[in-house]
Specification:
This protein is α/β, with parallel strands linked by helices. It contains ten helices and ten strands. The strands form three sheets. It has a six-stranded mixed β-sheet, sandwiched between helices. A two-stranded antiparallel ribbon has the order 7-10. A two-stranded antiparallel ribbon has the order 8-9. Helix 1 crosses helix 5, helix 4 crosses helix 6 and helix 5 runs antiparallel to helix 6. The structure holds iron/sulfur cluster (2 copies).
Length: 327
Amino acid sequence: MYRIRIHGRGGQGIKMASRVLGTALFRSGFTVQDAPKYGAERRGAPIFSTVRAAREAAEGATIKERGVIHRPDLVVIADDTLLAVPAAGTLQGITAATVVLVNSRETAATWRHRLNLAATLLILPATEEARDRAELPHIGATCAGAAACLLGVIEPAALQAAIEEELAPLGKEVVATNSDSALAAFDAMAAHRGLVTEGTAVSATDYIPPSWVELPVDDASVAAPDIRAIANSVQVRTGLWRTLRPVIDYDLCGKCWWVCSSLCPDSAIAVEQDIPVIDYDHCKGCMICVGVCPPHAIGSVPEYLAQQQEQQAKSPGEHDGRDPADR
Ligand code: SF4
Ligand code: SF4
């Protein structure tokens, strides 16, 4: 059975990647299970999804394993910044038999040196530049395409059909752009086609329970907390996740600040002399304040447009009309 884990951030299409890969495997004759795992949180937070794929003839028509994958055959990391986040668990359970694929602008040699892994480590050629840090267009489809090639049991036609099946509700244009990304990634990995080997089956029938209850404990390097001191959340600039910026129209604002400031989940709306003021370093752009403001005094502006306007205000003569992320 193949066991695959795909890591990324909320909003990068990681759940979609596992669905596309699972459907492509199903179309290639496998019994498949795929599932995302994320908390109650939000765009930009670490998430992962899993795919198990068993050959029907060899292993029966059902997959009895459930839950997260502890011994992956393939790990795809869509965002290399997650490698520095122990809580993301990207490296959990990796062995010498695992293939690790990282989407990064760094070289494979650099990551091998940094991570000192026994696994085979490959780099997914960097995807197009993102409009901002929270947006990585089509990265889910790119990961699915690259993974499909590394498995070696999926033909491009099955991959394309899976994308059409899974993304059809989003329209032809979305299907076309995601197909292009997935097939390009498939081709980019051609030199490594079939590199991933199937992990051995775990038989529930032969399982002998131990005489004690074993509680799994993560290695300290994985389980150690990210936060080592109190009151330091101010240092985490969640404003970088924002794709939409809430903007208060003070002409409409009724100064009912207890509404917006107390309902902002990140405490990003301060109150200065009865006036609500948004802290853009920490506003993550969830738009809850836009929805709850009684007189609709808070509007939403695309982040890149807001940055353009800021730039224009600072240096009107220098503005060249391009998105700041493209400069
Ligand atoms: S909820 Fe709306 S009207 Fe009330 S203080 Fe906040 S921005 Fe102003
Ligand atoms: S969008 Fe509004 S509610 Fe959401 S984090 Fe920003 S200020 Fe707070």
